[in-house]
Design goal:
Layout: H1 3-39, H2 44-78, H3 84-100, H4 102-117, H5 121-144, H6 153-178, H7 194-226, H8 230-266, H9 270-297, H10 299-303, H11 310-342, H12 347-371, H13 375-400
Helix pairs in contact: 1-2, 1-3, 1-4, 1-7, 1-8, 2-3, 2-4, 3-6, 4-6, 5-6, 7-12, 8-9, 8-11, 9-11, 11-13, 12-13
């Protein structure tokens, strides 16, 4: 559409992602607690209390953040030295999608978490596909003016994203209402015991803090790589784009492991959880390593999709070799962190994760990449070192069985 629009939307997207992290405090906390309650076969009233407490907290948070966006976007953008068009585009996008869309994004996140906990993962996939289709078509209509429609630009793009979030909420609400086994009745919503709120926040706040720490550390590493030149930055972007197709399986299995572990621990079957998580971890690690090896075998034509620059191609090619170690470690990390959190062992993986993000990943990237002069290869090796050592530590934590004493129910 135009470079000013890219700059404006890119600027506020990081703040929208921050809002998502805040919503995850409740969504992640409620999903872990709910999984253990389901495993423990708690009463419908107790299961309902989790849905009610989560809804109250998310709606209150969404309304506060919506107000903050409407009131604070102008002053926030004034802190940057922006061209008028860039500022206008940033303002439009943040107000429409970040502000007006906050409630829909929050509710949709909670609904999908609840559906997954009850085992309706195919349904959440269907909703995601429908929402993305609406978003993509809406974007195209807004930017290209098909069928003689007006070109709405950034406002239209934000509106399409808002519409997709709203449709997602409606579809998931219908799915939840039609399934009698899902306890999501909002009657007596203000009679929820205080301990339910505390339990959800006890799980959700540390997890959100870890996610925030990880993403800030990634921003710092990107800043390091940016100092190495445009080709290094491009190589970083292309490598991460390709890597997503590798670790997406481990992410999916990790999410499933968190729910399954919660079921087993809640049902008092910790020994079953202990054995099965090793099987899940082995499968995820084998899948990740296999895919990254395949990617290395076909990397030349794949990299060529993105760029014809020889220097960038060489960088991405070498970084993908380091990614073999990175994806091995990342798969361990995703599975065993998910298992520990599902078991209620939140504090250890969160605190160690934050330590590792900064003392191994960021510090390692700085020493290897900048101080010792290995450039982007040193930075990526620092990232791989963090993921691998953290994954091994989490595996040992799981093997120690200390998580058995951390159950929430």
């Amino acid at each position: 559409y135009c470079e000013e629009a890219v700059a404006g939307v890119g600027l506020v997207s990081q703040y929208i992602f921050f809002l998502q992290i805040l919503f995850n405090i409740v969504a992640v906390g409620s999903s872990i607690v709910l999984a253990q309650y389901l495993g423990a076969e708690r009463s419908q009233n107790e299961l309902n209390d989790i849905a009610k407490a989560s809804s109250i907290m998310l709606m209150a948070l969404a309304l506060v953040l919506t107000s903050a966006v409407f009131i604070g976007t102008g002053p926030l953008l004034d802190c940057y030295s922006l061209k008028k068009r860039v500022r206008d585009y940033a303002y439009e996008y943040f107000i429409i999608f970040g502000g007006a869309g906050a409630v829909f994004n929050a509710v949709s996140l909670l609904q999908s978490s609840i559906l997954r906990c009850y085992g309706y993962t195919r349904e959440t996939l269907l909703v995601t596909l429908v929402a993305n289709l609406i978003n993509v078509v809406g974007n195209a209509l807004s930017l290209y003016g098909w069928f003689g429609l007006p070109v709405l630009g950034v406002a239209g793009v934000a509106g399409a994203s808002l519409l997709s979030a709203a449709v997602s909420c409606v579809i998931q609400a219908v799915m939840i209402k039609k399934r009698s086994d899902i306890c999501f009745d909002m009657k007596g919503i203000f009679a929820v015991p205080r301990k339910v709120f505390t339990l959800i926040l006890k799980v959700g706040i540390p997890t959100a803090g870890e996610n925030l720490s990880y993403n800030i550390s990634q921003i710092v590493i990107m800043a390091m790589i940016s100092s190495l030149g445009t080709y290094a930055m491009s190589a970083q972007v292309y490598t991460n784009t390709l890597a997503r197709f590798v670790f997406v399986i481990a992410i999916g299995i990790g999410a499933a492991v968190q729910i399954k572990t919660g079921y087993y621990v809640g049902a008092g079957e910790s020994e079953t959880a202990y054995r099965k998580v090793f099987i899940y971890g082995l499968f995820a690690t084998c899948a990740s390593v296999f895919l990254v090896l395949v990617l290395n075998l076909i990397k030349q034509p794949v990299i060529g999709i993105f760029t014809n620059n020889d220097e960038t191609i060489e960088m991405v090619s070498k970084v993908l070799r380091i990614s073999i170690l990175l994806e091995f470690g990342r798969s361990l990390n995703l599975i065993y962190v998910g298992a520990l959190k599902g078991a209620g062992d939140i504090r250890f993986p969160v605190l160690y994760g934050m330590f590792s993000n900064w003392c191994i990943m960021v510090l390692g990237a700085w020493i290897l990449g900048l101080k010792l002069g290995f450039g982007i290869y040193g930075c990526f090796f620092g990232i791989a070192l963090d993921e691998t050592t953290r994954g091994i530590v989490m595996l040992l934590r799981w093997k120690s069985r200390r998580w058995i004493t951390k159950a929430l129910v």
